[in-house]
Amino acid sequence: MKKYSHYLLIPLFAVIGALVFVNLFARVDFSIQALHASLSIHPSSSGGTELHVKPVGVVKAHTHRTPVNIDISLENIDLDGLKEILTEGTKQDELIDEARMEVVRAMKKLVWLSIILSFCGGVFGLIILQRRSVKELLLGGLIGFLTVSFLLFGTYKTYDIQRFQSPEYEGMLKAAPWMINLVQESFITVDTWGRQMEGIATNLYGLFRRVESLQAVAPGDGQLKVLHVSDIHNNPAAFDFIGQVVKTFGINLVVDSGDLSDFGTPLEAAFTEKIKDLEVPYVIVPGNHETPFITEELKKTPNLTVLDGEIITVQGLVIAGIGDPASKRNESDPSRPEEHDVAVEKFYSLLERSGTSPDIFVAHAPIIAVRFWGQIPVVLSGHTHRYKIQTRQKSVFINAGTSGASGMGALKTKEEIPYTFVLLHFDRTEDGVRLKYSDTISISNQQSGYSLDRRVYPNLYKPQE
Predict the structure, then answer these.
(1) 189 vs 445: CA distance, rounded Å
(2) Which of 62, 157, 347, 444 is deepest in the core (most CB within 10 A)?
């Protein structure tokens, strides 16, 4: 009986040792331009491939029949390198070809590393079994080598990349399987749509000039033009339009009521380059999709001011604002009512101490913004992705909707979600800065058309009788 157990223990410990070594040490790091990733394999109850995108989630598919799990993890992003890619406009085909070559190269390294580790693990297993003869140790290494080689060969022969056409999702990606399609389509779609929006901006300028010739509201010498945007959600096409509007209309200031990002990841921080290129002051209150990391990256942008519980003066406008309480954590869940109350009460105290009368109040969430109706003439918000203008209590409430057409969220719905922007026209008068009228620009994402809505506010600053 001992003789048979002897023959059983040797292969058992050799296999266990080989699998433990592969599980612990079989990892290869590689880079695809600005993206730094790792490739590893692990014993598993079922065969599959997992793509880990921290902190967004995991995409996985049952790609092969062997009990081996292949993990590809995005470990780090070189923000400077990513900004160069976006600036230079690297083509999609080039990125795909480079990614394919790097993954294949990393996979070959991983196979050789796993084979070496399997032999070492088999030897180590027999050392644990207290075998000391060279013959037995070599036998253990050979068993480990053959076991892992068999698993790798089986994985290669049964691997089916097409299984990723119907993958499973974990984390935030569980609610967003459309993200895969977005990555595939965005290079072409965003570039084409961005050029269309630049043309629309130029055409709008000509239309505005004709509209102004018909209006009884003529721009004064002290006119101040403010572009209100919101909920861009990392849509590059929105920045193409904003940039063209800033140049064509002579915009003095851009005010963003939040949700510039989608997941608050380092990848999204690269869009600060787009803001820098505008070359005009840019004021933003953080939305619930911003994170502490994104907020800190935004603060590094020279022409950008993050407004969160402060009162500032830009271009002669006194602007007050409250960031969404959810922006102070790493989740994009909506903030809670009690958090709104704390933020509003703290800001009331600031207003009272400062003795300042702001011209504009900005908050991401309308539930916070409406608390200042009747106290501040112009109240700006976002969050709902629904454009809205309402005048009440000597205040005009303006929700810019979504200047990024909901970003990636638009792919989850068949409903038309337009790009919306609000152009605010102020006049500098002896009594201060006064909002004269607003022009809301709504651009169809599906029909390549646009509409204008002009509102005039003759009674906004008149004293109540």
Answers:
(1) 11
(2) 347
Give the confidence band of 181 by pLDDT, cuts at 50, 70, 90.
very low
The Cα–Cα gap between 22 and 147 comes to: 11
Per residue in 208-218, pLDDT tens?
554 444 343 34
Separation of alpha carbons 219 and 436, rounded Å: 9
Work out the angle between the directed axes of helices 92-128 and 2-25 (0-180°, nearest 10): 150
The candidate with the shortest Cα–Cα distance to 204, out of 141, 247, 239, is: 247
pLDDT in tens, 364-397: 999 999 999 889 999 999 999 899 999 987 899 9
First to last CA, the chain: 106
d(CA 432, CA 426): 10
**Which pairing describes strands 223-229 and 419-429: parallel, antiparallel, or unpaired?**
antiparallel
Q: What is the pLDDT of residue 437?
A: 92
pLDDT averaged over every residue in the chain: 81
| pTM > 0.70: yes or no | no
Q: What is the CA radius of gyration of the chain?
A: 29
Residue 113 in this model has a pLDDT that exceeds 90: yes
Pick from 88-97, 113-122, 205-214, 392-401: least confident: 205-214
Task: Give CA–CA dist 399/69, Å, rounded.
Answer: 48
Which of the two residues, 317 and 33, has the higher pLDDT score? 317
**203-456 topology per CATH:** Purple Acid Phosphatase; chain A, domain 2 (3.60.21)
d(Cα 328, Cα 343) in Å, to the nearest integer?
12
Q: Domain locations in the chain?
A: 2-175, 203-456
Closest to 170 measured CA to CA, from 179, 181, 160: 179
Contact between 287 and 322 (Cβ < 8 Å): no
**Confidence label for 79 from pLDDT (cuts 50, 70 and 90):** low
